[in-house]
Each structure stands twice: as C-alpha cells, then as structure tokens.
C-alpha cells in the first residue's frame, strides 16, 4: 500500500524539483566545456602523456557529474540507486588522477611503475566494495537517498585528505626555491586552483554525508568554473601543454554553451524564444568568424613555411659561400707561393721580365685572398659568428698606425696623405682588429678612387662621441650611387670603371662592424669629380 502511494506521489520528484534547474546548469555545462577542452588539448598536443592524464581526469570527473546529475533529476528509484553506488569509487579515482596530474606537471616526466602500482592500489578497496555491492547498504525511499558504507566514506575522506596535502606541498614548494616569479606562477595557478576545487569538493562531500543535506554538494559545484577558468588560462596563456590552440574557437563555443544553459532556468515562452534566437545568431556569427580565422591561420602557416624555406636557403647560401671562398682562397694561396718562389729564387734564377710578371701575380693573388677574406667576414658577421673582443682602446693611436701603414701605398700613386687629429682623449670600447679593418678599408677606398690630390684622415672629439673621417679629392659620389652605399654588393657605376675588382662588400663590412660597436657610418659628396668624405661615429668612453 505504501509503495503504491509512493509511486503515485514520487518522492524523488518532490524532494529535488526545486534543485533540478540548478543541477542541470551546474553539471552539464562543466561536462561540455571541460570535455571539449580536454579533447582539444589531447588532439593538438599529439597525445602526449600530460594531455592524456588531463583527458582521463576530465573523463572520470565527467562520469561523476553525469552520475550525480541522474541522482538529482531522475524519478526512477532503481536508477538512482544504481548511479549512487559507484560514485564514491569514481570520486576516489579522479582524486588519484588529480594527484598523478600534479606530480607529472611538477616533474615534467612520468612517474615510475612502482608509483603507478601504488596509486592503482589506493583505488582497490573502493573498487571491491563497489563491485561486491557493498558501497551502499540501503535506500531511504521517502527522501530518495541511499545509505553510504561507513568504512568506504571514512576511507575516502582519509585518502582525499592525504592527496590534498600532497597537491598543496607541490603547489607551495616553488616558493621556497630561488626561482623567478614567471616559473612560480604556473604552479600557483594550476595546482592552487586544483587544490581549492578538490578541497572544497571533499569538504562539502563530507559535510553532506554527515548532515544529510546533499544540496550542499550541488552548490559546491559552482566552484568548478574557477578551476576551469584557471585551466583555460593555463592552456591558452601559460601554454602548459606546449600547444598552440585557437583559443577564440573554444571561447566562442563556451559562450554558446553558457547561453544555452540559460534555458534550464527560463520558463517564460518569450524569453525562451529570444534566448534561442540569440544562440542562433551567435552560431551564424561564429561560423563567419571561424572562416576568417581559418583564412588568417592558413596565411600564418604559409608565412611560417616560407620563413622555414627562407632559413633553409640562407643556410644553403652560407654553406655555398664558405665552400666556394675556401676553394678560391686555396687556389690563390697555391699560386701565391709559386709567384713568391719565383721572386725569392726557390726555382732558380729568373729573368727581370719574369720577375716583374711574378710580382704582379703575387699582388693579384694577395688582393684575391683579401677579397675572399672580406666575403667570408661579411658572411660570418651576418650570421653572428664573429665575436668582438671589446676593451678600452685609444682610437688616436690606432688611427696613426693605420695612416703610417697606408702612406707608402698612397705615395706610390703620387698622392699625399695628411692627418687632421686634434689633441684630446680618444678612448673608446671596441675591438682593435675590426676597427683597424674599418679605418684601412675607408683609406684604401680613397686611394683607389683618387687619381690626384690628397687624402685627409681626421679624428675629432665631440660630447659623448668620437668621429673618424677620411676625405679625398677623388671620383666623388652621384646621388644614385649614394643609395647603394653600405649595402651588400652595392657598387657605383663609375667606381666599377676604375676598380673592376670591386665586390661591393667593403663598405658593407664597415657598416656591420660599426653597427656592432653601436656607432654609425655615412658618406658625403658634392657630386661626381668633387671628391667624397666618409665618417664613422663611435660612442666615447
């Protein structure tokens, strides 16, 4: 008779009718959002260990949410009893998986087989009680609730407490190490949010079981979005899974899910219609947005591919430059020793005419070797393999040495080389070898492109900087050629007529060296036939 009355007046419906909308909202939305995120991470990360653990954790927790939702919304006593029975076991499993997740997150590697066995063994008591149908020991039909096994409840409480202590230790350990905040922040966000959610979940579970007020569990699930937000932030901003996911897609879908969740609460027909219409409009706009994102994504992929191809071409070019220049330099070196042997008598007495040819050949080979070295140096400077030995040097002393070295060469062309160096302190931080190359290159250029007149080498001190200059009465520079100065392979049309061996790498190497010294270089000329002047500005010490 009582059973018939209870079937007519369904106590499950009566006791949970007010809480059902909240149950749907607090269970289904987290299931959809967390499962979508877990699968997205799992696929994008190419099934790594960390993403696999995360997916398994979310899957097991989603099973618990679905089972708990059935308990709160079903009118079938037998179905409620069937779903109530395994919930404690499922809860223990996702707590253990949470610990596994925390350990792997901190260690950045998997745990040993023995530790896996230990973690698995911790779930066995609950598993045995569940399959032997001892996890619940009865059912209180009037209030539509099952009686839990006391031992299982106490075991679950103790195990969850221990797991929470371990997670808390992992979360706060980085703060006792001398690590930058950037490395501490992910641990605090991920493990801190997990500890907050699991501890609040476990505490409310315990209080609900001893008070019988199970609605407490229902409201505790509203802390789940905090954990989800932290995980979403960790995935998209902290990139804890080392994947690049289109966060916009996930966030738009999440917005649609949240909008759909409003349907659990709305009872008015007009409001329900407007909500459905809003969801449809968001869906249409999302499709348009996703198409644009895909187009942009495809463009980024294409650009990345082109960048990779460009990098490969640069590497091939570098290898080719080094191969060719070494081969050419080897050929110059071998012929150089032949010419040198002819001049020093290694091959016996040679005629004056042959000596003259040998001298020209030796000079040509030396020039060729210098050109090869120049090209190699430029290539190494561009790739950053040249290391500058920066130390305090006297630029005046260096300039005077270079002027003295170049004086003979200038006089061979009947050119005067003068110096305009004022008395002052010319200390700078720089590399002696490479700054000497800069000075030598600029003076050599002036000698090459000046037929008559003089070359003036100047050194001047200004507030915070030192200026080295080379002025000549030579070829001059056209406005068109000025655009090509200091560029790779840049050569003037008239300069090539005078110096057929010009490579255009000389001034380019000067610019690379000066840039490395945080200075600047430029050239000035009033026009063709009116000479030119080059300046190098370097920071003073």
Automatic annotation (TrEMBL):
GO MF term set: protein histidine kinase activity
Domain of life: Bacteria
The enzyme's E.C. designation: 2.7.13.3
Biological processes per GO annotation: phosphorelay signal transduction system
Reactions listed under catalytic activity: ATP + protein L-histidine = ADP + protein N-phospho-L-histidine
Entry-linked Pfam families: HATPase_c
Transmembrane segments: 22-42, 49-72, 78-106, 113-131, 157-176, 188-210, 216-236, 248-267, 273-290
Keywords for this protein: Kinase, Membrane, Transferase, Transmembrane, Transmembrane helix, Two-component regulatory system
The UniProt record lists the keyword Transferase: yes
Full protein name: histidine kinase
Family matches, as PANTHER family: HISTIDINE KINASE 1 (PTHR43711:SF1), TWO-COMPONENT HISTIDINE KINASE (PTHR43711)
Histidine kinase domain mapped to chain residues: 372-541
SUPFAM superfamilies: ATPase domain of HSP90 chaperone/DNA topoisomerase II/histidine kinase
């Amino acid at each position: 008779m009582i059973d018939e009355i209870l079937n007519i007046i369904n106590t499950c419906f009566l006791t949970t009718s007010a809480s059902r909308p909240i149950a749907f909202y607090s269970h289904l939305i987290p299931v959809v959002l967390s499962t979508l995120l877990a699968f997205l991470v799992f696929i994008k990360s190419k099934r790594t260990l960390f993403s696999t653990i995360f997916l398994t954790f979310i899957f097991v927790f989603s099973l618990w949410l679905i089972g708990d939702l059935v308990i709160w919304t079903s009118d079938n006593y037998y179905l409620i009893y069937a779903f109530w029975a395994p919930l404690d076991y499922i809860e223990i499993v996702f707590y253990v998986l949470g610990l596994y997740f925390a350990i792997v997150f901190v260690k950045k590697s998997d745990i040993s087989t023995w530790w896996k066995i230990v973690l698995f063994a911790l779930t066995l008591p609950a598993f045995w009680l569940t399959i032997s149908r001892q996890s619940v020991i009865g059912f209180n039909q009037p209030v539509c609730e099952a009686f839990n096994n006391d031992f299982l409840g106490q075991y679950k409480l103790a195990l969850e407490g221990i797991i929470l202590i371990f997670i808390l230790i992992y979360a706060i350990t980085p703060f006792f190490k001398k690590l930058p905040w950037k490395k501490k922040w992910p641990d605090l966000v991920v493990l801190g949010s997990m500890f907050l959610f699991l501890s609040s979940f476990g505490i409310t579970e315990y209080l609900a079981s001893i008070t019988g007020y199970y609605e407490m569990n229902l409201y505790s699930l509203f802390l789940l979005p905090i954990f989800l937000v932290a995980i979403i932030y960790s995935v998209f901003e902290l990139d804890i899974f080392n994947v690049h996911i289109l966060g916009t897609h996930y966030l738009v879908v999440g917005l649609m899910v949240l909008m759909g969740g409003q349907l659990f609460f709305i009872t008015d027909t007009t409001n329900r219609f407007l909500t459905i219409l809003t969801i449809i409009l968001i869906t249409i706009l999302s499709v348009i947005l996703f198409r644009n994102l895909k187009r942009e994504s495809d463009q980024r992929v294409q650009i990345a591919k082109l960048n990779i191809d460009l990098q490969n071409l640069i590497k091939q070019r570098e290898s080719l430059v080094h191969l060719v220049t070494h081969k050419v330099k080897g050929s110059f070196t071998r012929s150089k020793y032949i010419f040198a042997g002819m001049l020093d008598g290694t091959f016996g007495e040679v005629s004056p005419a042959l000596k003259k040819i040998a001298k020209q050949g030796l000079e040509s080979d030396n020039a060729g070797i210098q050109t090869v070295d120049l090209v190699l140096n430029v290539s190494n400077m561009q790739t950053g393999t040249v290391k500058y030995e920066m130390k305090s040097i006297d630029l005046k002393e260096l300039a005077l040495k270079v002027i003295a070295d170049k004086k003979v060469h200038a006089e061979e062309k009947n050119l005067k080389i003068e110096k305009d160096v004022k008395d002052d302190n010319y200390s700078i931080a720089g590399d002696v070898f490479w700054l000497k190359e800069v000075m030598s290159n600029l003076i050599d250029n002036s000698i090459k492109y000046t037929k008559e007149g003089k070359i003036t080498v100047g050194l001047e001190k200004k507030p915070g900087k030192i200026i080295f200059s080379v002025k000549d009465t030579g070829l001059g520079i056209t406005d068109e050629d000025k655009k090509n100065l200091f560029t790779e392979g840049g050569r003037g049309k008239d300069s090539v007529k005078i110096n057929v061996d010009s490579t255009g790498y000389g001034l380019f190497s000067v610019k690379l060296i000066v840039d490395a010294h945080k200075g600047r270089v430029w050239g000035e000329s009033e026009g063709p036939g009116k000479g030119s002047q080059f300046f190098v500005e370097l920071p003073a010490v």
